[in-house]
Design brief:
The chain has 186 residues and is α+β, with helices and mostly antiparallel strands. The chain has six helices and seven strands.
Length: 186
């Protein structure tokens, strides 16, 4: 079963290990990888700042990944989606797919957002496929949008509105419920 729980400051060590994993880090566009102190400040802010929210994705109760929404305080009820499945053994097994449904439900039903968007490196096939499968719409292609190790990299802009999720969410949720990867919404 895949679930989300709120991020806690004591998740910092595990998150630091995940963020340092080359298989995660190569897809994260934070320009420079933070040192440990900057990482801890980032986790504390994620746990406390009303402008952002972080959830640990759990798999059978154990931490498997991280999902964040940033920009919650802005005037547009729009937030940026970022996520990773940090437990390498859990990748490619539907954890991301299930976490997306849970995260989009939180975004639109609990946080009352109007829109969620994501900037994904254009060669990140796993993220692009997973997000397309959840109904994210490709809204733009941004050439040379980020610098990674000093090199310009292209980015795909993805978006999902509350209206889109209301129309598509049940169909995307159904196979995950059937596979018992998630439980019904209460
Ligand atoms: C992107 C990520 C979060 C997806 O989570 P996941 O648990 O691995 O994905 P799932 O197992 O739920 O797969 C969902 C879909 O993604 C696609 N996918 C997953 N892994 C893939 C891979 N290695 N290559 C291509 N497509 C892949 C598949 O289409 C899959 O659908 P399917 O099961 O119907 O085939 C995860 O792979 C990850 O953390 N990657 C490293 C960090 C990262 O890229 N984060 C996103 C930054 S924008």
């Amino acid at each position: 079963m895949i679930e989300l729980r709120d991020l806690r400051p004591d998740d910092a060590d595990l998150l630091y290990a995940w963020r340092r994993d080359p298989d995660v880090r190569r897809w994260m566009s934070d320009a420079d990888f933070p040192d440990e102190a900057a990482h801890r400040a980032w986790v504390e802010r994620l746990a406390a700042d009303p402008d952002r929210h972080g959830w640990i994705i759990t798999r059978e109760g154990s931490p498997a990944g991280l999902l964040t929404l940033t920009g919650l305080d802005g005037p547009h009820r729009r937030a940026e989606w970022n996520w990773l499945v940090g437990d390498a053994e859990a990748r490619g097994r539907g954890v991301g797919r299930a976490a997306q449904v849970l995260g989009l439900d939180r975004a639109f039903h609990e946080l009352g957002l109007h829109k969620v968007f994501a900037e994904v490196l254009a060669d990140n096939d796993a993220a692009l496929k997973a997000q397309a499968a959840a109904g994210f719409r490709r809204e733009g292609y941004l050439p040379g949008h980020v610098l990674m190790a000093g090199e310009p990299r292209d980015v795909v802009l993805l978006g999902m509105t509350a209206e889109m999720w209301a129309a598509k969410g049940d169909a995307i949720r159904a196979p995950l419920l059937q596979a018992k990867l998630i439980s019904p919404r209460s």
